[in-house]
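A.,

Following up on our hallway conversation. Structure tokens first:
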């Protein structure tokens, strides 16, 4: 869904949608495919995507964890 973050491009900081790592300007600078990006940019983007996936998973399982805790408390 929605959400914005700052363009990862060096000295840019432009706000763009979460689906993109860098803005159109920086795509011209770095290329629009991750394979052509410098390592630091690829690492940053990988980190962000991993965090987003993890957060989504935690939210989905939050209720399950809470239920488990309740069950264990009885022992
Ligand atoms: Zn940019």
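Then the amino acids I'd put at each of the 75 positions:
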């Amino acid at each position: 869904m929605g959400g914005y973050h700052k363009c990862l491009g060096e000295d840019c900081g432009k706000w763009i949608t979460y689906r993109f790592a860098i803005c159109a300007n920086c795509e011209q600078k770095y290329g629009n495919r991750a394979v052509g990006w410098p390592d630091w940019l690829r690492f940053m983007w990988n980190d962000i995507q991993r965090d987003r996936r993890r957060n989504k998973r935690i939210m989905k399982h939050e209720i399950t964890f809470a239920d488990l805790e309740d069950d264990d408390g009885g022992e």
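Residues 6 and 15 are 4 Å apart (CA to CA). Curious whether your intuition agrees with the design.

B.
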